[in-house]
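Interim report, section 4.2 (structural modelling).
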Amino acid sequence: MSMECGVFHTRYESDMGLRPRPAQRIRLAVLALFVLVFPFVASTYWLDLANQVAIATVGAIGLNILVGYTGQISLGQGAFMAIGAYTAGLLTLNFGVPWGASVFCACILTAVAGTFFGLPSLRLKGLYLAIATLAAQEIVEWAMTHWTTVTGGTEAIVVPAPRLFGLRLNTTFNFYWLAVLTAAGTALFAANLFRSRIGRAFEAVRDQDIAASVIGVDVFRTKLLAFATSSFFVGLAGAMIAFYRNIVTWERFTLNTSIVYLAMIIVGGLGSIRGSFLGAALITLLPALITNLGRAIQDTAPQAASLLPYAQQAVFGIVIILFLIFEPRGLSKLWENVKDYFHVWPFAYRRGESRAN
Amino acid sequence: MSEMDCVHAGSGRRAEGWRNAPAEARAKGWAAGVAMLVCVACGSDGADADDNSIRVGAIFDLTGPTADVGTDYGDGVRAFADWINGQGGIEGRPIDLIFQDYGYQVDRAEQLYSQFVSEGAVIFMGWGTGDTEALRMRIAEDEIPFSSASLSHRLGDPAEAPYNFLLATTYSDQFRIALDWIAANHGEGTPIVALMHNASPFGLSPANQGGIEFAEAQGIDLTLYEMPRGAVDFTAEFSRIRQSGAQYVVFQNTSGPAAVALQNARSLSLDATFFCLNWCSNAQVVQLAGEAAEGLMGTMPYAPLTVDVPGTRVIHDYLASRGESAEGRTNAYTQGWWTFAAFAEGMRRVLAAGQELTGASIKAALETLSDYDMGGVTAPVTLTSTDHRGSKGLRIFRVEGGVWVPFTDFIQAPAS
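Predicted structure of the assembly:
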């Protein structure tokens, strides 16, 4: 990866811009236009899927901050989402806290919980840390289902619908705007975070923690900060689910959720904001696509169609394995390949020469 | 520099021959894959049925943790749709059943629900307690009459869930019938009952929705034991049950785990009477547990196909006409068939009255069902605008010689 040829910066501001090149701005404008037009043409079904993608994007960016950027593996995603969802839901339900305030409280509380469960990262790395976060998942799951006085046990809790000036926000259409804005805000924050000193410290810890401490990074503090930042957004995703669905059930936040989110950032691209979004979109839409494929071939090949439900889990696994083998840096890198290809098109270097440098 | 430039310093050093050489070929391959997915995504709006048909959405659990009974239930629902279309449909209008497996996942249920409703489904056949609870608000908003195979008491209260209908006896009514029978037949001393339940809202539903209070009022000593998901051994739970001196063990779980538990209890030679509520009182549990299921009692709102009543005869005839055997078909099959049949009757009443088929009109018609005879498969069904729990009674069955036989006549559930 290098600077693009033909682009000259004459001012520091333009050199440091988030999207300095015209092509990037045009793509952003096209994307923005699509996002603005989409809800007016899409059916409720596709809008609902879009909302799920937006929520998953927030959660995946949160997880990527921890796993992709700081290199701390976490299996506690479901637990942290649960803390966000239950805190937001219970505050509004029991104490009548306005939804905005309770979402904020949920994010803060999840960040605190994340920091607490991040404490073992002082001594533990890699697989050992993964097991420690797995403990967090189990503890929270147990608390959700057994701490009946607070969480209502295995019964679902019904959260009052969020309203703004009398307008109900959790209809598919209204929530779309809220979800897209939140996802965009999260992406913008995260993109800027990794241009800052703190963000670079996260990456330094990931790449070589000893070297990082030699150049003056407080490794433990940085890890905890990564846990807190990550959990803040994961809690936000949980709180969004609580208010979007009106109902909080523990069944949504099991270990399976943690694994699905890990799959999102692996397929999308570790350490990439764009990858978080692409991974969240693919993993959310994949079951829907398989379902639609099944229904499309139901008449022509009923045998194959009736097998598809059973193949679904396998397809899920195969997609992850294929990505790990053929494109370990995920959808994000694929997109870069496409860009690189078209950037010099039609005057590409011949094969073998392109990597000569 | 873009924001991506500094990210992968550590991971860029791999020597990946595959990734270097055939870049264009790979790009084409990926492009083809993406194009195919896009085609699939756009090409299947499913709006190819004729306008006269009645769209019905359904989700089944064919691959998830309750697939042991879910598959048979789903087959029953599909068989009824096929049967009634063979009879000329509902008032001449065929049923177009759109269904998918959802693997007992709440997210998938939500996706499929909104997909089928946006494709014009007028009623919806749901499944689990968790996902029906999660959908409850939207069901009321969309005005989609919704049947859940979940018999959670709360879902039958129109004040909380106006468009949810329960056609069989609720879990808590079933549990109270079992407790009532125990209290009446126990004899001397305090009856000690262990409820072994699935670790989910479904599992706790009988106890939390009136069961605990009822046991207290009847002077029954009731203790709850959780059966963890995916467990293959319940010896630890049974040693606690043995210490408690329980004479009765009630299962609220699906047939797979219940059969495992029955075998555990047998190998521990635990001396107790076993009860199965709805989802494990079926032929499967007998098949899986074998000898250990002998003498097992079951609160069974839907009769199995081995019981000869008009409601099972019609199913036998249908299966025979298709050249299929009723062998291995459980009462979940009857339940799927007759749940759908009651909804079909509601829709028939709407059409017979010359009204438009809408959620509100179907709901109103269902609420006119009074002592509706489900072919003797269940106690007669009555639905009103203040009560969506179809029947309050059931027969207790018992396993004798490997077959479920009626043990009592229809018993009304005692008031909670």
